[in-house]
Amino acid sequence: MRMIVAQEAQNLSPTEKWEMLSPFLRQYGRGSLAYATLQQGMEYFVHPKGYLAFTSANHPVFARKGKRIVLGDPLCAHGDMEELIRDFIKLNPHAVFVVVSEECAALLRTLSFKVNTVGYEPVLPAQSYNTQGNWKELDLIKRARNEAKREGLVIKEVDIETVPVAELEDLSKRWLDGKTVSDREIWVYARRPVYHPEPDVRKFAAFDKTGLLVGYAFYDPIYRDGKIHGYAANTVRCDEKKYGRLATAVHMAAMDVFRSEGAEEFNLLLCPFDKVDGGKYCDDWATKFFFTTSVRYGNEIYNFKGLSFHKSKYRGEDRFVYFASNGKLPSNDVYLAFLTSDIANSYWATMGRLMKGVIKETFFKKKKPAVKVAEPNSAAAPAGKGLQESPPKPAASAKSS
Q: What residues have CB less than 8 Å from 70, skipping those under 6 apart?
């Protein structure tokens, strides 16, 4: 067993990580964020039977002895999961697990962890999904396809090193400027873009009529028993001001390619804190309260509502994922997970933004006017004719603070 932390972890090159971890990753990387464990900045517990990836949090109040924030399930065989977690906890007694499967969550509960549903992942069946869309259930897909065709956009898989780095970085900056957290790159749960080839990662780009880059998406592999089972949309950047539906069009073009290769799953990744009543576990009331309050009022922290609403339009299967902590106050560990992933950089600033959202929603949100329902009468419409249907309209690591 080996702990790789701090500077030793930082010094690992992508090639060294791949050589050390890929045998476990390709065999046991079942989760949507399994490949994300290779991110620069992650730390590792390497075991003869697998590994765990984590970040480290230190805080003068919430983590005076330090805490390990583990990303996803252990990368190991199902039958070895308990052994890896027990051996990890012996060395790291203060631990938090984020975005774990129901199987892992159930095991953690037997080890005195409190578990809460942290959100869900929309999962699309790659072999049967309607990637052309329709005007009924999948109008998002239909509109995205139509927009790309109308604008003459070209979407294709690329060797990312053939795309000018200046265009990639400029697009990423403009995309970031439009986000709630716009002064820094969030990582861990959404990968920072990597502008060079990575083993098994698929990279697609969209270009306008002049050949200018207007969007890109990178898809991480999801493995089953040494083979690629599907892909997760982990890095997506588009010119959203000009092409509001481009990300969807890129996803559909990519899924068409993956389908032809036999992929079974297309994962849109975590919708944090939403639909938490749909999951199996809710052990800590305060943690659930923080999740539900953040979804309702926390758009000053992160676009929780918008992300979940957009992904719900794909009509996928909701796969619930879990948060687990063995701390006395698990809700404080949610903040530590925010902190180590750069979603937050200050406790008081985060709470201030949440309070700002409460005030805006409570006192300044405009109420929608009531819709009047007309009483039926003989003059309402000619006999045998109902209301005319309108055509569809376009839809608008160690860290402390």
A: 52, 53, 54, 88, 95, 96, 97, 98, 100
A 10 A CB-CB count for 282 gives 16
Domain ranges of the chain: 2-118+276-298+321-359, 124-267
> Taking 50 as the threshold, does the pLDDT of residue 25 lie above it?
yes
Question: Please, which residues have CB within 8 angstroms of residue 207's CB and are 6 or more apart in sequence?
Answer: 153, 154, 213, 214
Residue 363 tokens read as: 């006192």
Q: What is the mean pLDDT of the chain?
A: 92
Cβ atoms of 55 and 42 closer than 8 Å: yes
Tens digit of each residue's pLDDT (9 = 90 or more) over 132-158: 999 999 999 999 999 999 999 999 999
* Count of residues making up the chain: 401
- The model's confidence at residue 182, banded by pLDDT at 50, 70 and 90, is confident
Element (H, E) at 147: helix 139-150
Q: What's domain 124-267's superfamily in CATH?
A: Gcn5-related N-acetyltransferase (GNAT) (3.40.630.30)
Closest CA to 321 of 73, 10, 6: 73
CATH of domain 2-118+276-298+321-359: 3.40.630
| Helix or strand holding residue 19 (H, E) | helix 14-28
Q: Where are the beta strands (DSSP E) in 72-111?
A: 95-100
Q: Could you report the per-residue pLDDT of 239-251, keeping only the tens digit for each?
A: 999 999 999 999 9
Name every residue whose Cβ is closer than 8 Å to that of residue 49 and which is 6 or more positions away in sequence: 76, 77, 80, 83, 84
Amino acid letter, residue 163: V
What angle (nearest 5°) sits at the alpha carbon of residue 395, between those of residues 389 and 396? 140
Q: Which two tokens stand for residue 97?
A: 């697990």
φ and ψ at 318, to 5 degrees? -85, 115
Q: Judge whether 398 and 56 are in contact, CB under 8 Å.
A: yes
What pLDDT digit, counting tens, does each position of 367-380 carry? 655 544 444 443 33
Q: What three-state secondary structure class fits 368?
A: coil
Q: Token pair of 303, please?
A: 């676009």
